[in-house]
Amino acid sequence: MTSSEIPGGTAYAAEAAIRPRRRRPFTFARLLRASAPYLLILPVVAVIAAILGYPLYYLARLSFQKYGLFELIAHHGTSVGWANYSSVLHDHVFWQVLVRTIVFTIANVALTIGIGTLLALLLTKVSSVVRILLTAGLVLAWSMPPVVAVQVWVWMTNTENGVLNYALTNLHVGDYAQHDWYASSFSQLSLTTSLVVWGAIPFVVVTVYAGLSQVSHELVEAAEIDGARAWRVFKDVTFPIVKPIFLILTSLSIIWDFGVFTQPFLLIDQTRINASNELMGIYLYEEGYVKTDFGRGAAISILMLLIVSVLSIFYVRKMVRTGDEAA
Amino acid sequence: MRVRLFAAAAVVLTLAVMASTASARTYRSGSAAASKITVWLQVDAQSGWPNLVAAANQEFESKHPGVNVDVQYQTWGDHLSKFDATLAGGNTPDVIEMGNTEMTKYMAANAFANLTSQKSSFPNSKNWLKGLAASGVYNGKTYGVPYYAGSRVVTYRSDLFAKAHAKVPTSLAQFTATAKKIGKQNNKKGFSPVYIAGTDWYIAMGFVYDYGGQIAKLKNGKWVGGLESKKAMAGLAAYKRFFNAASRASKTGVENRPQPYDVYSQGKAASIVGPGWFSCCVGKKYTKTTKQFVMPSHVKGQGMPGFLGGSDLAVPNGSNDKSLAADWIRIFTSTASERGLQAKGNIPNATNLLGKSVNERAAQRSWFVPTAKNWVNVENGNVLRTMLARILTGKASIKDAASFADSNIELTLNQ
User: Fold this and answer.
1) For residue B38, is pLDDT > 90?
2) Which residues of B touch A1 (CB under 8 A)?
3) Does the structure's ipTM exceed the value 0.85?
4) Which of B16, B77, B109 shows the shortest C-beta gap to A252?
5) Is the full-model pTM beyond 0.90?
6) Distance of residue B354 Cα from the nearest chain A Cα, in angstroms
7) A59, A161, A309: residue with CB nearest B258
8) Cβ B21–A301 below 8 Å, yes or no?
9) The CA-based dihedral angle spanning residues A54, A56, A61, A64, taken in that order and rounded to the nearest 10 degrees
10) Domain formed by B152-308+370-413, architecture
11) How far from the centroid of its chain's Cα atoms is residue A207's Cα?
């Protein structure tokens, strides 16, 4: 959508075209007015530079050094050029982890946004009592710290005494007595997915619902009168209006899910983590912290930063472009 | 309006991306004043013998008036990464408890103070348990003071053994036969005559050492994996046979999820293998009938070598007052204190204090991990667990799984 579509904008543009162009004299007041936005954003930039800028610089510097336990104690690393990067990029585990993490991210983001949107749409249809109950439930799920949620999942999926095996067996879904939910990498990552998606849905529902409440009824009604079915109304009327919200939610989810650490690390457990179930965040932790090779860990960190940036930029550009086309 | 929203989204994203990956650890509290020493002990002390810690602190504080002891309890899973962070930040504790398998890496990196010259001032230091004391020595210098050790024994229900007319087994074959008999008498689904989690490498490697194998050995300055040797593979095969005959636990399961004593206390196991203190938590119902014996070897009359777990106490080089720190260790490892640990089912740190408990008898034949500085990486990389899971599930032959583990071990240890 361009400014010409906004009624006020059109008027302003017309007025500007009529007025003769004239060079305004350079004054201090003008300079001040022009630089005002930059002055206003300056404190934020300064804080970000202090909080994130220095660690980032340090991280980048570390990634070009050999920095193990010995160097840590001596407080002095030795420069090794690109060796850390080349060792990571030549590690076949890194590539396996990368592919696995991308697949994991796509599955998690799709499930989170999909189920979240459906629940948000449900919220617009139900009575206010049900809506309040549902929202309260979602907020409770949201407010549960991940570490606690992991513990609950561990209990439910316990091989010997878990309620999941008990319930599935007694519901005659199959013989799940002593079924080990952590026996294969796929099963481990599926459980992680269920936990991550469960924890992420409330934020999506609340945000999308807030967006949906901005969609005016007249537009929806008009479309329905024109004979549009529910899916058509959502696709052509509702979705374009709340698209910016989906953009932010999806992109944030990509960033969170790509770098997810707490849930898989605690759920799969240190004793089960190996090259066949590592996600990027865990790979970074294992290589950097557990093996005490901080230089290599830093290199993985920087690579992760680049990958997430590329993923996000790709997505943002695509969304902006389709946004423009729609307008 | 829309454009601005997109711009805002872009800014939010940039920040989130940066924040998600740039969370460097930078906690640096002020350096401790000399009027306080910080001690890192494992939670085992907090749950098992807090009174011994309190008594040691009291004695220390009355000996050094004005100096406080700040004991901070740590967990095994993350205490090393926390310790690394303090090494970077320069606020290391004054005393740290280290697992005996964790010592070498840090001694090699010069993280600890050399205590060789004052070794004789530590109580019972002439009689320290050889295996445990060795874990605190690097290049002939002493860096770690033995704290306590623990061996692995079989905790069993004497009522179920009596019902099967079984005596305490004196050989692995006899134990296997007993297990089969008990299994037949209690053929509830999921009942284990001997509950062992599939990837419990502390138990599985006992079989390897029992058959004369070893995990790795040093040859001409290089580590060579030993699991593919004939003897080690015979041990692995024996482990697989015993597991299949006796344990209904998950073949890919880990020994702390669920805790074996929880399985036992719920009546789902006739016996469990693990540290002697497992007897603590067998449940009220079985407390009276629970007894322990030494895991038998395949050679009749011998015990199977058990993993000698244990802890050392060390003084990090960054300590503000190393002599105070050493003095706290002296008090905490006194004869009285070690006797207290013994009463809790642990093995005290010196031979002159040893008694005749099952735990202490089991320690007579023991094995220990290779003393390589990178060993802890093999442990945390779950190399042995992966091998055991592949062997038990049949995803790989013993030879293939062992050879894969060997190459992984060699790669890590020789780095």
Assistant:
1) yes
2) 1-2
3) no
4) B16
5) no
6) 33
7) A161
8) yes
9) 170
10) 3-Layer(aba) Sandwich (3.40)
11) 14
